[in-house]
Amino acid sequence: MLAVLAGALWLATPGGALAEDDGLFETNDTRYVVAADGSPVKVTVDLTLRNTVPDVRTSGGVRYYYFTRYLVAVPTGTQNLRATSNGRSLNVSLEKAPDPAFQDIQTAAISFPELRYGKTRSISLTYDLQGADIRSSDLSRVGKGYAAFITSATGEAGHTSVEVVAPKSYEFHASSDAFTETRSGATTAWKSTKATDDLGIWEFVTLRDHDLAGEATVTIGGDTVRLLSFPGDDAWSDFVADKLTAAVPHLERLTGTPWPGGLDTVVEDVSPTVTGYAWFNAATNEILLGEELDTHLLVHEASHVWFNHNRIGDRWLQEGLAEVVATRIGPTIGGTEDPPTAPSPTGKGAFKLSTWSDPEGRAGETDSYGYPAAYAAVEELIGDLDDESFAEVVSAALGGESAYERPGSTLNRSGTGTRRFLDLVEDRGGNASADATYRTWILDEGASALLDERAESRKLYRAIDGSDGAWQPPKGLRWLMTDWQFSDADELMGDLDATAAAAGQLQDDAAAAALDLPASLREGYESADVPSGYQESGKAIRAAIDSVAEVDDATRAVEEAGDPVSELGEAILGTDAQVDASRAAFSDGEFAAADRHARTAASQSRISGLLGIATVAAAVLALGGLTVLAVALLRRRRPAVEPAATTPFPPGPPPGDLR
Q1: Which of 220, 254, 289, 343 lies at a 20 to 30 A Cα distance from 151?
Q2: Which pLDDT band, with edges at 50, 70 and 90, does 20 fall under?
Q3: Measured on CA atoms in the order 614, 616, 619, 624, is the torsion positive or negative?
Q4: Where are the transmembrane segments (predicted)?
């Protein structure tokens, strides 16, 4: 709020002296008319002054008091002052404000003839308000489609008013909610009669017509974004286009998600001077900024294209993430690294961030604590992570993931709020002290008690998750833990303890037996979310454990009977086929068939040796009989021939006489 300057000066005869504002009754009705073309604001101040200090008779005569000058507070940039009373012009001049702290205020000093006791003077003061240059230290602004200035009307309570008139296309903001709106033809009037302090009305007002703007465009992620500046403020449009283009790739990297779209317009406006903040409006896909060329602020607001109520449920988390991300990115694109100074979480004005609500109209005392506190909390939670790990946590939060599901799972997704984020910070971000941060900055004592319950439940959950091997605990339990329903979760974990241990045993037994577990077992266990599902899953797991034993025993029995004679018997019986059928049936979840084949294989294995011996013996006997028979046959077939008499050959021809 703006402080008030004195309303009246006095002059008196040497007979007595009065305080500055004693003895003067003042009424003040001030009217400001804003034009669409950006010409100076026309201001009219209608004053009525009445001297209420009676004359005093003394031994030397009559002592009387009178006023000859009156000071009216006017904004800097005031021109063409003119004061009239009773149809006559009065002398009026501009002077500096008595208090140098009010650099945006001047005083118009109006001189008039003596105003004696009981007398009244009506004065009309008119002037033009030119406004200062964009981005100057003076707060007054007047241009085509926009205006911002201090309004004032000092006087008696109930006898002052401020009225602002502008084309009906203008939006109006003020430093209080005291103004009422009246539409008439092509204009709208906003009027306040409520004193802001003992001396009258002091309000800062802003007006903007977004249709009267300079327009440029920039392409972001394939989307065309309009940049609506004050007419002629190309420096602002160029700045926004350059920094927004540079910031978005970094935002994609740190959030772990691509440009989501949903930004149509970035608007330069005077209203942040009144409201105390810029903003992103997810309903209109619009960022509204002041005239400042502030890299950090632009990145902060651009990050709300990601961090908004559509994805992040609580204000402290939206603003904390935006501030941490802007602090990381700003220096990389030419901004300065100037993180907020952490306030005391127990100091004056401190509150638990989970109670920080969305703004309504103007920033208040809660915002002056909330923004730096939210930054401090989020920085403690994930600020130490490198960019890649930071993005893993943030992308999971933006995706509404549950920390109790596998990364990237689409199960159990919802908007991320205070509770889900803590789970993600601990489980995905590895922050073991996140609980303490929540107690310090975020949750009140009642909610902090829930953290104690949570800690105990998470111990039980980790035990369940450890005993059930590589499988996830059942869905029903995961959902209870995600929703912080710890009493119900604890009860369920008591019921699931034996089943979880059996699930772990089954996985170990199957691995030792080199058996592939049917997918239905894991699916049934992990997807169970009602009592019947838990019971059916437990029953199937125990049946599978028994079947693993049957199949493994049969497999081992067959393998141990590895001598050639037994293998011969197994080959004759088809035992290996029974083992293969048993293992295949197990992997298909057909445990009865697996057990049947396993028992058959085991039974065959027990007799395979005898069968092999018998087979070999039969073969030997059969081979021996064939040998005797062959000898007998050979003997039977040999002829009994007597030797023939030897007859000498006749002599041959003499050597060399061959014809």
Answers
A1: 289
A2: very low
A3: negative
A4: 609-634
